[in-house]
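Internal tracking record. Fields below are filled automatically when a chain is submitted to the structure queue. Please do not edit lines marked as system-generated. If the sequence contains nonstandard residues, flag them in the REMARKS field before resubmitting.
Queue: standard
Priority: normal
Entity type: single polypeptide chain
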Amino acid sequence: MKKIIIPILLLITTLGFAENKKPKKHIKSWHIDETLAIADTVPMDTLHLNYQSQNIIEKYSIANLYNANYGSPILSKIFEKQKFNSDFFFENSYKPYILDISKAKFYDATFPYTNLTYLTGGKSGQKEEQITFQFTAGPSEKINIGLDLDYLHSVGQYNNQAARRFAGDIFGRYQGKHYSANGFLSLNNHNNHENGGLADLSILTNKNVDVKSKDMPISMAGYSVFKKKQFFFNQSYTIGFEKEVKVNKDSTVWEYTPVTKFGHSLKLEDMQKRYYEPSLVKNFYPNTYDTIAKSCNDTASLRSMSNVFSVSLAEEFNKWMKFGITGYVENEIQQFGYLVDTNFVRTTKSNTRVGGALTKSQGSLLRYRILGDIYLIGYKIGEFRLKANADGNFKLFKEPISINANAYIKNEEPSFFIQNYNSMHFRWNNDFSKIYQTHIGGIFALPKRKTRLEINIDNITKHIYFNQNGVPTQDNGNVQVLAVDVKQDLNFGVITLENNAIYQVSSNQSAIPLPMLSLYHNFYYHDKWFKDLYVQFGTSVRYHTQYYAPLYTPATGQFANQRKTKIGNYPFIDIYANFHLKRARFFVKYTNLGTLFLDDYGMLMPNYAVNPSMLKFGLSWNFYD
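SYSTEM-GENERATED OUTPUT FOLLOWS
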């Protein structure tokens, strides 16, 4: 498949580049909120610096749990990144890789825009590769369409840990005077082999044994598949009036001002999880419920359809009350598929909630959003959320200052599969209570001085986690988490030192285990050479203190808390050269130098060692024709 895709993408982009037209300067992008379809502008990815750290895992957070192979299931060691919780809990470990509406970008471009990116690393037979293709164009001022393609294949440095992923989407938007619409269709297909970690960790530090990583004994052999399809469509119609606006002393223009907006959003999802053992694994998991079977073939699925109907009063029409008001109702139908013994059965459930929002999204001095909703019908009845977010930008003695404040209260019903699940190695039938969460946080930033301070405080009552046996359990008390995230860049001409320190304290490390301190430092030289060549040469290090990190469970794809093995106190050191020439960016990087001279061998999570050092390369090319 890759042999067909790559030549086609290269041909398309080469033909566009051959026209050699000068790019125009009008292109912008934004995300939209999937509940109310509110747009949130995001910058285009054209930075000169740090392109070498743009793969999915390194962008996700500065410290992550995964099996060392690119494309494997992942959990951040940073609590703020752990808060995503899907109704299909198998999705949680794949979320950073998934293309869906939460990551979709919509564009307004006056010219066709294309990006082609290729990343690779490792020796033959152990290589990791990723190729992405992005295209967007606007046939007219009102219409923009585009697509994304993303193919990843990583064999891995250890036996039986290969990962393969294909993700793609098609998107489009229409913006008329009264009617507007956004459409998005995506497909995600993720496959990864499971080895259960290394069976003998002493090999890593035994100098009398010379064994290549690919030949080290592993604990088991399995195979996981996760698939997600999503269709999202939002449409709205506004009613308003024309008003005369003075342009200058002698002329005026008529502008349309919306007053009321009627909106509708439709979201369809189909998710599937499969776990397969060609030969039944009997001595790895605490339980095997069918010892006569020769293989294992667990499967689960979730199909859902949600409709959101909303009515809004726009903030533009009232010059005295500069905010918008929205009321909405959402209906959700879910169909859960699961095994009961050897039979695959389906259960259908429905939920309905009502909510409202108060928003101010225009202006640069202050923006805010307050949203609240509650489920009135269905198995989620009584679940509610109330959240608020505010952003402020101002100057103090000519110093730009940015401030963010955010808070929420949630009362969430545990998902269906957290309550009920049957498989070869895991079975449970729970009656967990709702999870009550409160959060308050804030960000203080001095953009000009590259200073950023973020503080978050969370309190969770009845927290649910996977215990040492790999099954969900509910804590009976409260768990508090304090997190302080500090970023400070130090510039000395062409020399820069980027610093990021995250301090985390959990009141119950058995329920929410976290490293106390996680660090990222990036020291580099950067300059402009010749006319258009931007260069960056540097070294980076990632580090976190020791803690009882969760253990990965292949059969469910979840990370189970344990109190036997600590990991940490190991520096991940990379060196790199990064270049930006006109429309092209490329880098060369040598990763994990510590394996060449440190006596200790780092662990990414219990039983899963870091990769040996390897050479990586990447190229990204933008086309504006």
